[in-house]
Design a protein that fits this description.
Radius of gyration: 17 Å
CATH architecture of one domain: Roll
Structural class: alpha+beta
Strand content: 35-45%
CATH topology of one domain: Thiol Ester Dehydrase, Chain A
Order of helices and strands: EHHHHEEEE
Helix content: 25-40%
Largest sheet: 5 strands, antiparallel
Strand order of the largest sheet: 1-3-4-5-2
Distance between the termini: 13 Å
CATH superfamily of one domain: Hotdog Thioesterase
Amino acid sequence: MALSASKLKVGDEHTARLVEDLKRTQIVQYAGASGDYNPLHTDEIFTTQVAGYPSVFAHGMLTMGMTGKMLTDWVGDARLTKYGVRFTSQVWPGDTLEAKATVKALTERDGVKLVEVDVATTNQDGVVVLSGYAEARVDP
């Protein structure tokens, strides 16, 4: 069921757990699906011994995709009109991610009701790993 503007107010929040204990396998599967085989995401030896990171880490777009799914699960399919993010911290194997969308404004453009939201995804330590915004069409 799609969101209704009449049932939303500024400050409303929607939260969802995106992943619990992110597995290396999920990161590698995303590499295959996206075609992004950057060794920082797939090659432990390169990542630790050459690049100096403690481990491989998730693609930013994997985090963005999981967060986007939370949004479409909430607002409905094909309703997002804008979605943009900034990657603020790395996501590591073993991380658990939670996303929150907070209603920032309810507007109308060309007779279409819209909800504008701020989006943040945090890890199990409360570190923000992604921040951004979205806009979606909503029912009246």
